[in-house]
Amino acid sequence: MGTGDGRPRWNHNIHYHRLVIEAVCSGAQNALDVGTGNGLLAAELRARVPVVVAIDADAAVLAEAREEIGDVDFVHGDVMTHRFETRFDVVASIATLHHLSDLDAVFARLSDLTEPGGVVVVVGLARATRLSEYAKSLVGVVQHRWLSWRRGYWEHSAPTAWPPPHSYSDVRDSVQRVLPGAEFRQLALFRYAVLWRKPS
Known about the structure:
Layout: H1 12-15, H2 17-23, E1 30-34, H3 40-46, E2 51-56, H4 59-68, E3 73-76, E4 88-94, H5 103-112, E5 114-125, H6 131-151, H7 168-178, E6 183-187, E7 191-197
Parallel strand pairs: 1-2, 1-4, 2-3, 4-5
Antiparallel strand pairs: 5-7, 6-7
């Protein structure tokens, strides 16, 4: 899947798809993409995992994803209330949690949807409130300009929300409460990553 000039699509979210793919458990049989948007992460997961379910609350962007990407079960719905038929070996979400208000409830829901021994991987957006966080954000500005020039910037059609309602500290604290033992780190390009493996 590329752009009109033949280059692969690139933006801040696609840049971090690799964090999800690298975390896929050996032998994983199914995966859930939460807030799939245009479905690009779901397509990459499907190359590694036999069954991929991708859910999004926006019907229009989901219709676009269905038209472009095959062999993925696209679901129109709210991840917090939708009744899934199974738990998942991989539960992934990119740039979605800042659309939802209650972080504790969201992380608890992702945990509930994960099969014991499975993995939760979240890449999200948050606000800087500390000097070190602002410094990393400045690095992100430089990185954004360089990578956008080098690779071109593909604008997705999914709804956006800016500024994020949560700070990095908010997210870190919620992760510690709800997903004990999870790894949290701030990334460049105004993102953070959460990686948690559910005890077997």
